[in-house]
Amino acid sequence: MSASIKEFDIWVELDEYDATEKQNLDEDFCNAIICYPDGSRITLNIWSENYLYNQINNLDWIDKQVAILPDIVVRNFNSDSIRQAIKNLVNNYSWLEGRGFPALSCE
User: Fold this and answer.
1) Span 2-53, pLDDT tens digits
2) Cα–Cα distance between 86 and 92 in angstroms, integer?
3) What pLDDT is attached to residue 39?
4) Which residues are 11's β-sheet partners?
5) Which of 7, 10, 24, 41 has the fewest CB atoms within 10 Å, i.e. the most exposed one?
6) pTM, whole model, 2 decimals?
């Protein structure tokens, strides 16, 4: 992916909870998909900051050698903040450049 591609859509897999529900969204995770106009897409795993802290001692280790962590950790765990964080990383920090993400068709 070239850093010059500024147009893309972001789909965030995040349930929005009613304010009356007692859900602790700071201890959650979700996925997001960045879709580019050419049909390529990138899938990201996103954790809240508190979820990272809570999971740090409970990581799933593969062959006792490596743990798979999220692609990004966000402090404000809501759809708007997640979208803004992704836009900022892609557009202002060339975050995807050289990361080896496969390009898949959105179709």
Assistant:
1) 444 568 899 998 855 555 554 555 568 999 999 988 888 889 999 999 899 9
2) 10
3) 84
4) 33
5) 7
6) 0.75
Comparing CA positions, the residue from 50, 49, 38, 52 lying closest to residue 5 is 38
Nearest to 72 by CA among 7, 4, 12, 9: 12
Q: Is the pLDDT of residue 99 over 90?
A: no
The SS3 assignment for 68 reads coil
- Name 47's bridge partners: 29, 73
Confirm if 90 and 34 have CB atoms less than 8 A apart: yes
Q: Which contiguous run of DSSP H or E holds residue 89?
A: helix 79-93
Residues 41 and 31: their CA atoms lie apart, in Å, by 13
If you search the block for the tokens 């897409």, which residue do you land on?
Answer: 41
Using CA atoms, how far apart are residues 96 and 93, in angstroms rounded to an integer? Answer: 9
Distance (Å, rounded) from C-alpha 98 to C-alpha 84? 21
